């Protein structure tokens, strides 16, 4: 585990301004990481850490060292305990001997950068890494010294997490396991980076340039969706929804290929004859699917949305248990944003009040006066952060790796 030993730290004990030098910070990071790891693996956290390790080990109870290190590191830095705190938070709160610099460093580790990196160059004790996911460069050190990067060469790849040395002005540390891959694995590495970017778009949007690019791309995609499908809100049986989305994605890819004929000439065009989209099981078993492509929330799918829309169209149905339970689910589930409820309240302003009065048993409830407060109480997570685009934007370098144009 990174942080248990320190060796080959660059010399120079203090900066000219009197604060700790980069060498001091790296050495101190090793001491703190070792103490933090021991704290996180202590018996007080067994009830949360052990199930994570057992789940990863599977029925064979086999878990390689690198994967175990990744799980432990993720648990210590990012796992939310029942009270919302992390192991790092509890470690800092319980250590009154920590300096302000120590606290700043430790709390900064709660926001690690996960990625797949291409090695750009070596600079003394550091390696400069390009994150294929967010398209940003990171000057990276290891608190076990330059030996951690022995055998790492320009153009090779690393899969790891980085944490900041906040007081060091753009310096980063390897945290947890680090896997290396040769230049020859570029195509496979690019596919893995693409999967990471599309499955966890928040990783892409660490780069503010990608945020604006994502909004622009989403606006263009939504406009094309509305033109192709006839609107931004549809209610369809699951099979029809899948067919429509596959037809739409096929149409978009064909349009993209037509726009770049030179790049496509002579190459097989994967995906044009294959399905792009398949509903997950819980949605595929619904009576109807709501498909909404919103300007802010992007493209989303909602189970039994047709029945929910029937409720708002006919508030007499609010007395039925099935309809009540469905609306409660939409209000309760963290996987469902406020969007569908807002849409229905706006579409049926004359009946929305009656629906919520029956459900909440509050005869004085009005959507215009109390609706937003209701959503904020039920879905605080939605309002906790600034909205991000629902479309990931990959960088030019990753695009080149994916098409073999390195």
Annotation keywords:
406 residues; alpha+beta; OB fold (Dihydrolipoamide Acetyltransferase, E2P); 3 domains; 5-stranded mixed beta barrel; 3-stranded antiparallel beta sheet; globular
What does this 3D model show about the protein?
This protein is of the alpha+beta class and 406 residues long. The chain folds into 3 domains: 87 residues, no CATH class; 91 residues, Nucleic acid-binding proteins (OB fold (Dihydrolipoamide Acetyltransferase, E2P), Beta Barrel); 173 residues, no CATH class. The strands form 2 sheets. The chain has a 5-stranded mixed beta barrel. Helix 2 packs antiparallel against helix 3 and helix 6 packs across helix 18. The longest helix is centred in the middle third of the chain and has 22 residues. The N terminus is likely disordered.
Average pLDDT, all residues: 88
Contiguous runs where pLDDT drops below 50 for at least 5 residues = 1-16, 266-272
Order of helices and strands: HHHHHEEEEEHHHEHHHEEHHHHHHH
Distance from first to last alpha carbon: 33 Å
Compact overview of the structure:
The chain folds into three domains: 22-108, no CATH class; 113-203, Beta Barrel (OB fold (Dihydrolipoamide Acetyltransferase, E2P)); 211-383, no CATH class.
Record the SSE blueprint.
Blueprint lengths: L21 H19 L5 H12 L7 H14 L8 H8 L5 H9 L4 E11 L2 E6 L5 E5 L15 E9 L5 E11 L4 H14 L1 H4 L3 H22 L3 E4 L1 H22 L1 H4 L16 H4 L4 E6 L3 E6 L1 H9 L7 H12 L6 H9 L4 H9 L6 H12 L1 H4 L12 H7 L4
Parallel strand pairs: 3-5
Antiparallel strand pairs: 1-2, 1-4, 2-3, 4-5, 6-7, 7-8
């Amino acid at each position: 585990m990174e942080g248990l030993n320190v060796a080959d730290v660059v010399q120079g004990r203090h900066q000219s301004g009197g604060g700790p030098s980069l060498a001091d910070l790296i050495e101190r990071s090793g001491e703190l990481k070792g103490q933090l790891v021991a704290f996180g693996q202590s018996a007080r956290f067994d009830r949360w850490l052990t199930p994570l390790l057992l789940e990863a080990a599977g029925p064979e109870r086999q878990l390689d060292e690198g994967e175990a290190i990744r799980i432990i590191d993720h648990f210590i830095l990012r796992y939310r305990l029942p009270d919302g705190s992390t192991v790092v938070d509890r470690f800092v709160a319980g250590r009154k001997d920590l300096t302000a610099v120590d606290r700043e460093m430790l709390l900064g580790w709660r926001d690690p950068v996960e990625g797949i990196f291409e090695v750009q160059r070596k600079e003394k004790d550091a390696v400069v890494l390009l994150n294929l996911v967010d398209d940003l460069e990171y000057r990276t050190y290891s608190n076990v010294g330059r030996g951690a990067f022995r055998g790492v060469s320009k153009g090779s790849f690393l899969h790891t997490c980085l944490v900041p040395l906040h007081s060091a002005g753009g310096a980063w540390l390897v945290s947890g396991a680090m896997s290396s891959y040769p230049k020859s694995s570029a195509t496979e590495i690019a596919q893995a980076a693409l999967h990471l970017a599309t499955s966890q778009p928040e990783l892409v949007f660490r780069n503010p340039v990608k945020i604006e690019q994502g909004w622009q791309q989403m606006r263009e995609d939504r406009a094309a969706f509305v033109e192709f499908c006839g609107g931004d809100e549809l209610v369809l049986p699951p099979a029809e929804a899948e067919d429509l989305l596959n037809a739409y994605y096929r149409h978009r890819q064909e349009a993209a290929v037509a726009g770049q004929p030179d790049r496509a000439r002579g190459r097989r065009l994967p995906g044009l004859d294959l399905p792009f989209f398949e509903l997950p099981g819980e949605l595929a078993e619904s009576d109807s699917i709501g498909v909404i492509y919103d300007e802010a929330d992007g493209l989303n799918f909602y189970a039994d949305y047709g029945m929910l829309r029937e409720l708002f169209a006919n508030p007499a149905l609010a007395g039925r248990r099935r309809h009540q339970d469905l609306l409660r689910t939409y209000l309760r589930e963290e996987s469902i944003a406020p969007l569908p409820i807002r849409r229905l309240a706006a579409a049926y302003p004359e009946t929305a009040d009656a629906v919520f009065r029956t459900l909440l048993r509050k005869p004085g409830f009005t959507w215009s006066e109390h609706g937003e407060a209701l959503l904020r109480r039920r879905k605080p997570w939605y309002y906790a952060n600034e909205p991000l685009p629902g479309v990931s934007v990959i960088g030019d370098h990753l695009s080149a790796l994916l098409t073999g144009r390195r």
